[in-house]
Amino acid sequence: xxxxxxxxxxxxxxxxxxxxxxxxxxxxxxxxxxxxxxxxxxxxxxxxxxxxxxxxxxxxxxxxxxxxxxxxxxxxxxxxxxxxxxxxxxxxxxxxxxxxxxxxxxxxxxxxxxxxxxxxxxxxxxxxxxxxxxxxxxxxxxxxxxxxxxxxxxxxxxxxxxxxxxxxxxxxxxxxxxxxxxxxxxxxxxxxxxxxxxxxxxxxxxxxxxxxxxxxxxxxxxxxxxxxx
Length: 229
Prior knowledge:
CATH topology of the largest domain: 2,3-Dihydroxybiphenyl 1,2-Dioxygenase, domain 1
Strand order of the largest sheet: 1-4-3-2
Shape: elongated
Number of helices: 5
CATH superfamily of the largest domain: 2,3-Dihydroxybiphenyl 1,2-Dioxygenase, domain 1
Strand content: 15-25%
């Protein structure tokens, strides 16, 4: 039996048990100068979780971005990958301009906003994103998943901000509406408030049930459902 036939047989038999939870919690990034990398990620405002060493032969450092359930590690003899060879590390943000400004305030160089020509997003120095063409500026329609900015660590490991304000159906982390940080929740409330203001203009009066309207708006937005009018 060929591998293809085995794969087909496996797909034909539905699983009778619940799938095992698998939570991505660590991404390894290769660096050439551990202390320089530590200073850079600390400057980003990321939380330092660990700095363990065993003599000069081994050292591991762990940082976690604000609001993230996944951390990065780097160090001495942590990976055989070439320093700076990791690309396409996505940081999801609800406000792209606020994320860019935060980096600039910290003295970190970050690209101008851009969106993609087609379904992938890259520049001439980013073949890891399939070599597609960048278009300057945020997505004109400001669609969720569509606006980006990029920056790199001192070794050249490449990071991308991606602005997501409304998840596609089935893309919510966890059961129900969840937010990675209070900042994301606050941004969702502001969007609901602005939409509710337009709702009151259309209906011509004060809505005493605004809290219920806000809640319905936020839940629908996060679930990728039609928004209330």
